[in-house]
Design goal:
With about 120 residues, this protein is mainly beta. It is built from no helices and 9 strands. It has a 3-stranded antiparallel β-sheet, with no helix packed on it. It is globular.
Length: about 120
Amino acid sequence: MRSRFILCYRSHLSSGNPRQPHAQGGVIRQASAPLTITLDDGQVVRVAQTGDYAEYPDGSRAHIISGAGAQGQLQDQAIALVGSALSNGDEIIDTPQNTVLISKQQGVPMADDFLTSAR
């Protein structure tokens, strides 16, 4: 068996981030995936997925339009990741959790729809 090196990884995004996880200052207030993660502070939060939205300081909202694709889906929706795109051109840049990851291994392709925008 050959060993494979991890080239990169993406963290799943979850709600409850006290920091601003989006480049333009948006925050996921409520995630809809059935999967929950317990944060380091003990808070239990849901995982965000495509179709969920970020709220911005000006009151506007933007939907998550890309995610893990076939690499990670819950109820036919892709799990949102650091690097996921939003409908307003923003990008998820942070997550409050450090437990659940998707890794990219050398020589193993990612799914064709990994971090591509839904059409």
